[in-house]
Amino acid sequence: MNNPQSLPYRPNVGIALFNPQGLLFVAQRADLPGEIWQCPQGGIDEQEDPLKAAQRELYEETGCKQATLLGEKKDWVSYDLPPALIGRALGGKYRGQTQKWYVFGFDGHDHDIRLDLHTPPEFSAWEWVPPQELLQRNLGFKRELYEKLLPELEHIYQAASKDWIRTKRA
């Protein structure tokens, strides 16, 4: 195998979906052992706008079309796959992923969440949790990523949530 450092990062989006109570949508991966939890995320297709990719991935993975964009993380963040997954995960073509993160407010009802729209399903279970509770879950090799991301994603939500909630009530 080539030197992993010579492999590119796969362009990807991450989605932090908050409900009006400030709880974060988290889901359990269906394809990984050990009850690994994460936020929705997925690859950006060639020539696809990252925001459009985020909206598409949110729908594919959760069935959610009832979401308002509240903000985005200014910078892209990258992470490397663990050595055992390089050459196997992500089609074997990438060393990891570089992500653009978006923060959305959930405008729907819990019954609007559908994990069965994507075949095979990405997730097997989901919950609304206080954002910092995600760090108490098994995040696999993405723990460090979430430790760095969560404070900024929460800040983006807090900065936009008052106007969003006021608009929802109007």
From TrEMBL:
A motif (Nudix box) lies at residues 42-63. The gene is rppH. Accelerates the degradation of transcripts by removing pyrophosphate from the 5'-end of triphosphorylated RNA, leading to a more labile monophosphorylated state that can stimulate subsequent ribonuclease cleavage. Belongs to the Nudix hydrolase family. RppH subfamily. Its cofactor is a divalent metal cation; Mg(2+). The lineage of its organism: Bacteria, Pseudomonadati, Pseudomonadota, Alphaproteobacteria, Acetobacterales. Residues 8-151 form the Nudix hydrolase domain. Coiled coil: none annotated. The keyword Hydrolase applies. Keywords: Hydrolase. This is RNA pyrophosphohydrolase.
